[in-house]
UniProtKB/TrEMBL annotation:
Source species: Paracoccus nototheniae
Family, similarity comment: Belongs to the TRAFAC class translation factor GTPase superfamily. Classic translation factor GTPase family. LepA subfamily.
Membrane topology: Peripheral membrane protein
Function: Required for accurate and efficient protein synthesis under certain stress conditions. May act as a fidelity factor of the translation reaction, by catalyzing a one-codon backward translocation of tRNAs on improperly translocated ribosomes. Back-translocation proceeds from a post-translocation (POST) complex to a pre-translocation (PRE) complex, thus giving elongation factor G a second chance to translocate the tRNAs correctly. Binds to ribosomes in a GTP-dependent manner.
Name by which UniProt lists this protein: Elongation factor 4
Residues noted as binding GTP in the record, renumbered to the chain: D16, H17, G18, K19, S20, T21, N133, K134, I135, D136
Cell compartment(s), UniProt: Cell membrane
Catalytic activity: GTP + H2O = GDP + phosphate + H(+)
InterPro entries: EF-4 (IPR006297), EFG_III/V (IPR035647), EFG_V-like (IPR000640), EFTu-like_2 (IPR004161), G_TR_CS (IPR031157), LepA_C_sf (IPR038363), LepA_CTD (IPR013842), LepA_IV (IPR035654)
Sequence ranges assigned to domain Tr-type G in this UniProt record: 4-186
Alphabetized UniProt keyword annotations: Cell membrane, Elongation factor, GTP-binding, Hydrolase, Membrane, Nucleotide-binding, Protein biosynthesis
Any single Pfam family the record assigns to this protein: GTP_EFTU_D2
Uppermost EC category: hydrolase
Length: 597
C-alpha cells in the first residue's frame, strides 16, 4: 500500500467515555466486520475485559475506508488500555502510530485519565483530533467541554467533532477527519527492514503472535528475521493483518501494521520495543528501545487447599507466558504453606490475574496483602529490594528504608474536594497543586504508593460517590521512618499478615487490624490473644474469648434437614479456612484485616 493511503491512529479516552463503542462503530460502518458477526466491543476480547468494560491488552484492527476524495484508505486502529496500571502498554503502542482521536464524554468533560492518556499521545508526537461523544444525551454540553479541552489540555478544540458512538451520529465525520487531519506515515521502502515490535501474545493454535509496525523496508513471508535486542533469529512462517480476524498477506511495507508467527516458544522471548530487521541485510541503527515494565505491587498467592499447588503453578506459568509484565517466584509461608510471590503493574493487574486464576483455572486462592517494593539501605552499604515484608532482615542491619512515592492527579466535583483532601492527608499525602476547571477541582498529591495500593481507589470512589477520577505516576524513592509490624494469633506470628508501615501510624493500623481479626476469626474452645507487634514490642492487643457451646448443639434432636444444612455450610466454610497452630483463620480475614476504614 502507498504511504499516502495509510493512516495509523489510536483512541485515547478516560474510562467509560466511549472508546470501545467508537471503535466498534468505525469497524461496523466501514463493513470491516459483517453486521451478523458484530458483537459489542469487538476489540475487548477477554471475558474479564467485557465484564468490567476495560481494555487490558492493546489490540489492533485494519479498516478499509473509501473516502470522499475517491481513494480507499487503509486505517490501522490500535486500541490501547485505558487504565493507569497499563500506562506502559499505552506508551509503547502510541509509538507505532501517528495520530490520536481524543474522545471526551460531553456529559462529563475532561477526567484524570483523559489527561494522562492525551499527554502520552502528545509525547509521542501525535496529531490529535478531539471528539465529543454522547451528544445524544440531554446532559451533553459540547461547548463547555470544548472550552475545557482548550483550558485544561491546551490543544485547539475549535474543530472538535460532536458524535454519538451509540447512535452512529457523526461517525462519517470522524472517518473523514482521520484521513484529512491525521498525517500519513513516513518510511523508505528501499531501505533495510526496520520494524517495531509493538506487542506479542500467546495463541493456543498459532503459538506466539508478534505484532509489528514496519518503519522502513519490506517484510515477507519466509524471510529470516533478527530481533536486534535479543539477537534471536526466526523465520516468518506467516504474515497477517487483523481485520480483526487474521487475514494472511504476502508482504508488509512501511507504515503498515500487522502480525507474524514463526516458531517462537514464549512471549517472554519477545521484547516489546525491540527492532526487527533482516538477518542477512540488517539496518544499522535500532529504534530507541523501551524500558521493560517493572512490577510495582507484590502479593502472595496461596492455594486454600495445599493439593492445589501443582495446578496453581501450571496456571501461573500459562498466564505468565502471555503477560511479560507479570512476575512470580515460589514462596513458602509458615502460615500458608507453599505458594507464589507475584509481581504486578498495579492493583487492577493483580485483580485481573487473580480473577483469571480463580475463574479460568477454578482455583481457590488466598491473596496476602499487596505490598510495594521497599529499598533497604543496609549498614554495610548494600542496597536490597524488599518484595515481601516477611523477608525483612534484622533491623540492626538496616541503616534506612526508602519507599516509592507517586504523583497522583485527582479530578473531583467541588463539593467532594474536602473529603478527598482528608483522604489524601490521612494517607501521608503532601499536596502539590490545586486548580479549578469549571466546577471540578484538580488536585495533585505526592503520596506513598504503599498507602495507595490497598484500598485507595475504593475509598476515593466511596467518598466521592464515584465522581472522582484518578491517575498516577511513580515519581521517586524516598526515605521515611518505616517499620515491619507483625500480627500474632495465639502467640504465633502469622507471616502472611505482616506489613511495612510508617512508625507514626503503626499503633493505629495495629489496633484496627487486631480489632478486625477479633471479629473475623471464629471463636474456638479456648481464649485466643491477638496482638500487633513491632519487633518484640506489642503495640495493640485484643482477646477473643472462648466459645461456650457446640454450634450444632441446639439442633440435636431437632429438625434433621436444618442440621444437615448447617453441617454442609460448615464444611464449605472449612474449605476457606487455614490452620495456624491450634487456630483456624478464614481466608477472607487476610484481606479484610488489612483494609483501612
Ligand atoms: P470505554 O471505557 O471508553 O471503552 O467506554 P465504552 O465504549 O465501553 O462505553 C462506556 C458506556 O457508555 C457504555 O455503556 C456505552 O454503551 C456508553 N456509550 C458509549 N458511547 C455512547 C454514546 O454516544 N451515547 C450514549 N448515550 N452512551 C454511550
Ligand atoms: Mg473499553
Amino acid at each position: 500500500t502507498e504511504l499516502s493511503l495509510i493512516r495509523n491512529f489510536s483512541i485515547v479516552a478516560h474510562i467509560d467515555h466511549g472508546k470501545s463503542t467508537l471503535a466498534d462503530r468505525l469497524i461496523q460502518s466501514t463493513g470491516t466486520v459483517a453486521d451478523r458477526d458484530m458483537k459489542a466491543q469487538m476489540l475487548d476480547s477477554m471475558d474479564i475485559e467485557r465484564e468490567r468494560g476495560i481494555t487490558i491488552k492493546a489490540n489492533t484492527v485494519r479498516i478499509a475506508y473509501p473516502a470522499k476524495d475517491g481513494q480507499t484508505y487503509i486505517l490501522n486502529l490500535i486500541d490501547t488500555p485505558g487504565h493507569v496500571d497499563f500506562a506502559y502498554e499505552v506508551s509503547r503502542s502510541m509509538r507505532a502510530v501517528e495520530g490520536s482521536l481524543l474522545v471526551v464524554d460531553a456529559t462529563q468533560g475532561v477526567e484524570a485519565q483523559t489527561l494522562a492518556n492525551v499527554y502520552q499521545a502528545i509525547d509521542a508526537g501525535h496529531e490529535i483530533v478531539p471528539v465529543l461523544n454522547k451528544i445524544d444525551l440531554p446532559a451533553a454540553e459540547p461547548d463547555r467541554v470544548k472550552a475545557q479541552i482548550e483550558d485544561v489540555i491546551g490543544i485547539d478544540a475549535a474543530d472538535a467533532i460532536p458524535i454519538s458512538a451509540k447512535t452512529g451520529l457523526g461517525i462519517p465525520d470522524v472517518l473523514e477527519a482521520i484521513v484529512t487531519r491525521l498525517p500519513a506515515p513516513k518510511g523508505d521502502r528501499d531501505a533495510p527492514l526496520k520494524a517495531m515490535l509493538v506487542d506479542s501474545w500467546y495463541d493456543a493454535y498459532l503459538g506466539v503472535v508478534v505484532m509489528i509496525r514496519v518503519m522502513d523496508g519490506v517484510i515477507r513471508k519466509g524471510d529470516q528475521i533478527k530481533m536486534m535486542q535479543t539477537g534471536a533469529t526466526h523465520r516468518i512462517d506467516n504474515l497477517a493483518v487483523l481485520t480483526p480476524a487474521m487475514r494472511d498477506i504476502a508482504e508488509m511495507g512501511p507504515g503498515e501494521i500487522g502480525v507474524f508467527t514463526g516458531s517462537i516458544k514464549q512471549v517472554r522471548d519477545t521484547r516489546v520495543g525491540d527492532t526487527i530487521t533482516h538477518e542477512r541485510k540488517p539496518c544499522t541503527t535500532a529504534l530507541p528501545g523501551f524500558k521493560p515494565a517493572q512490577p510495582v505491587v507484590f502479593c502472595g498467592l496461596f492455594p486454600v487447599d495445599a493439593n492445589d499447588f501443582d495446578p496453581l503453578r501450571d496456571a501461573i506459568e500459562k498466564l505468565a507466558l502471555n503477560d511479560a509484565s507479570f512476575s512470580y517466584e515460589m514462596e513458602t509461608s509458615a502460615a500458608l504453606g507453599f505458594g507464589f510471590r507475584c509481581g504486578f503493574l498495579g492493583l487492577l493487574h493483580l485483580e485481573v490475574i487473580r480473577d483469571r486464576l480463580e475463574r479460568e483455572y477454578d482455583l481457590d486462592l488466598i491473596t496476602t496483602a499487596p505490598s510495594v517494593v521497599f529499598r533497604l539501605h543496609m549498614r554495610d552499604g548494600e542496597v536490597r529490594e524488599l518484595h515481601n515484608p516477611a523477608d525483612m532482615p534484622d533491623l540492626t542491619l538496616v541503616d534506612h528504608i526508602e519507599e516509592p512515592r507517586i504523583k497522583a492527579t485527582i479530578m473531583v466535583p467541588d463539593e467532594y474536594l474536602g473529603d478527598v483532601l482528608k483522604l489524601c492527608q490521612d494517607r501521608r499525602g503532601i499536596q502539590m497543586d490545586l486548580t479549578y476547571a469549571g466546577a471540578r477541582a484538580m488536585v495533585v498529591y505526592d503520596l506513598p504508593l504503599a498507602e495507595v495500593v490497598f484500598d485507595f481507589y475504593d475509598r476515593l470512589k466511596s467518598v466521592t460517590k464515584g465522581y472522582a477520577s484518578f491517575d498516577y505516576q511513580i515519581s521517586e524513592y524516598r526515605e521515611d521512618f518505616l517499620v515491619k509490624m507483625s500480627i500474632l494469633v495465639n502467640d504465633e506470628p502469622v507471616d502472611a499478615l505482616s506489613i511495612m508501615v510508617h512508625r507514626d501510624r503503626a499503633e493505629n493500623r495495629g489496633r484496627v487490624m487486631v480489632e478486625k481479626l477479633k471479629d473475623l476469626i471464629p471463636r474456638h474452645m479456648f481464649k485466643i490473644p491477638i496482638q500487633a507487634a513491632i519487633g518484640s514490642r506489642v503495640i495493640a492487643r485484643e482477646t477473643l474469648s472462648a466459645m461456650r457451646k457446640d454450634v450444632t448443639a441446639k439442633c440435636y434432636g431437632g429438625d434433621a434437614t436444618r442440621k444437615k444444612k448447617l453441617l454442609e455450610k460448615q464444611k464449605a466454610g472449612k474449605k476457606k479456612m487455614r490452620q495456624f497452630g491450634k487456630v483456624e483463620i478464614p481466608q477472607t480475614a487476610f484481606i479484610q484485616a488489612l483494609k483501612m476504614d
